[in-house]
Design goal:
By secondary structure, the chain is mainly β. Helices cover about 0% and strands about 50% of the residues. Strands 2, 4, 5, 6, 9, 10 and 11 form a seven-stranded mixed β-sheet that branches. Strand 4 and strand 5 form a beta hairpin. The radius of gyration is 13 Å and the shape is globular.
Length: about 130
């Protein structure tokens, strides 16, 4: 079955960096668009970043993370990454990896994704 396993979360000070990883199995990874979402306590899950399956040329970011976060993928490792720099306390959330077999203009919607990981906690303190 399909599994997405996130790792790399942690407790860091504002201004620090973290790199999240999401290892996928049970699917033809290179044919899936991948994304990161996050959910803070008491808030709805929100889109963070997405990368297309077509060699990862297409990348999309939420305005709140643009210029600070970078999404990338290594298809040979079935892994997608989220490099997070200049972290802020408002970045504190559980971060989820997601896979879509038909990523399109609705990349920002959680409904576009077929599979989800269990999440990894990122906590940023000031």
């Amino acid at each position: 079955q399909v599994q997405l396993v996130e790792s790399g979360g942690g407790l860091v000070q504002a201004g620090s960096s973290l790199r999240l990883s999401c290892a996928a199995s049970g699917l033809t990874f290179s044919r899936y668009g991948m994304a990161w979402f996050r959910q803070a306590p008491g808030k709805e899950r929100e889109f963070v970043a997405a990368i297309g399956w077509w060699s990862g040329v297409a990348r999309y970011y939420a305005d709140s993370v643009k210029g600070r976060f970078t999404i990338s993928r290594v298809d040979a490792k079935n892994t997608v990454y989220l490099q997070m720099n200049s972290l802020k306390p408002e970045d504190t959330a559980v971060y989820y990896c997601a896979a879509s077999g038909s990523l399109s203009s609705t990349y920002h919607s959680s409904e576009s994704y077929n599979y989800w990981g269990q999440g990894t906690q990122v906590t940023v303190f000031s």
